[in-house]
Amino acid sequence: MPSLSDAFKSVPVQCKEPDISSMDEVPELYLWPQENQQALEENIGVNIPVIDLQHGVTSRASAGSVIELLRAAYEEFGVFQIVNHGVSQQLLERVENQGRRLFSLPLDQKIKARRSPDGVTGYGMARICTFFDRLMWSEGFTSIGSPLEHAEKLWPDDYQDFCETIDEYDHAMKDLASKLMSLILESLGLRQRDYSWGGDNCAALQMNHYPSCPRPAQTMGMAEHTDSTFLTVLYQGSVQGLQIKRSDGMWTVVPAIPNAFVVNAGDLLQVLSNGRYKSVVHRAVNSIKPRLSFAYLWGPPLTAVIEPAPQLVDSKHPLLYRALNWNEYLVVRAKHFDRALEFFRNVQ
Ligand SMILES: C=C1C[C@]23C[C@H]1CC[C@H]2[C@@]12CCC[C@@](C)(C(=O)O1)[C@H]2[C@@H]3C(=O)O
Ligand SMILES: O=C(O)CCC(=O)C(=O)O
Ligand SMILES: [Fe+2]
């Protein structure tokens, strides 16, 4: 059985880890073209629904059931936010504190837990850094299941709090993600029991740190991308920074709502829904304030067959993708990035 880490062995990447936290000036390599930076500030969060998982109400005028709200959100944006999701504020604060603790370590300490060139977990720049000619003003830490292996290197005598907190968060996210997937399947008119896949779902936790930036309008925190998941549950704390690209090409800010999660539609959901729900293109921008975010990237068991649901294929909706599994998708994606889905297009 391949593991999530194996998918990346074929395309090793070597990213640099400069000490941006201690820079008061932004080096040339971090300056991105200006047009990258214009989000519709006056449009902050307009229409991106906030769904109350317990009561089904929303920020939108037209309140409806959770399922209807979800469907409308994914058809229009590929993203929504959730509140009353059952994850305690206390756990979120503990996770934020551990994230802060990790990223405030000196660089030469963090480097000890550096992601290996052919690996997935550990400290470093987001893997997509190799597809852009500028550097991103951010650093990250990725774990799959227990972060013990890396935490021992970061804090040889004091890794327990970190591991316990991340384990707890991982479990909470696992439950939440599968609940969300049930709702998504229901919103597509699909039966839950057809999608048990016989095996454990795979997931990764990506912690991102965007240090305070002296020239936030000229830099990029995390360059535009989609997630290669079914869905991603993102906690962005209280500092705004996430933006989504709408179907008309306009960037829109996803407001930071205390204790809410952002739920992104990923590439595999686009396949499963036969293009009904498109994965959302998103990015994170910098600010004067330091920012942390925690993305739980959730997908199927690695070798489970994922294909467009037969119920969503008909004369008006031709079959768009051929069957694939997450492992082969990640391999193609590691090499071809935003063109990966094209390789799985169904050719008649
Ligand atoms: C299971 C996953 C999903 C990964 C790769 C692997 C672990 C880390 C994930 C991210 C997290 C940051 C954005 C992204 C684009 C990246 O560079 O690393 C993600 C990528 C993907 O969604 O493809
Ligand atoms: O920091 C953010 O808001 C976005 C992070 C993200 O897109 C990711 O980790 O995949
Ligand atoms: Fe993302």
TrEMBL record:
Keyword hit for Ribonucleoprotein: no
What Gene Ontology terms describe what this protein does at the molecular function level? metal ion binding; oxidoreductase activity
The domain of life for this entry's organism is Eukaryota
Q: Keywords of this protein's UniProt record, alphabetized?
A: Iron, Metal-binding, Oxidoreductase
Give all residue intervals belonging to the Fe2OG dioxygenase domain: 200-300
Q: Which Pfam families does the record cross-reference, listed alphabetically?
A: 2OG-FeII_Oxy, DIOX_N
Q: Does the keyword Transport apply?
A: no
- Which family does the UniProt entry place this protein in? Belongs to the iron/ascorbate-dependent oxidoreductase family.
Q: What is this protein called?
A: GA3ox2
Species assigned in the record: Pinus tabuliformis (Chinese red pine)
